[in-house]
Amino acid sequence: MEYSYLTDIDDLEEGDVVVVPTNDSYSIGYFSRYTANKQHIKNATKLIVEKVDIKAYETKIFLGI
Asked: According to the model, what pLDDT value does residue 49 have?
């Protein structure tokens, strides 16, 4: 399923893990692409919360933190 979200994060790449709001909580999603499509922009009513720093997480796991 594909959803449209607004964002002010300008360095997202395809496949980046992002936190997004849902109806009553939050969820993770995978960034697909930026768009200039007016209909997609019109459909986007929620903002991406943040990009998940997977590399930092993996480093913590590797270091046993």
From this structure: 98
Structure tokens at 58: 């993996």
User: What size, in residues, is the chain?
Assistant: 65
Burial 1-37 (b: 16+ CB within 10 A, else e): eeeebebeeeeeeeebebebeeeeeeeebebeeeeee
Using DSSP bridges, classify how beta strands 26-30 and 50-51 pair: parallel, antiparallel or unpaired.
Answer: unpaired
* Statement: the pTM of the whole predicted model exceeds 0.70: yes
Choose among 12, 6, 2, 8: nearest CA to 44. 6
Domain ranges of the chain: 17-63
3 phi and psi, to 5 degrees? Answer: -125, 155
What confidence tier does 2 reach under pLDDT thresholds 50, 70, 90?
confident
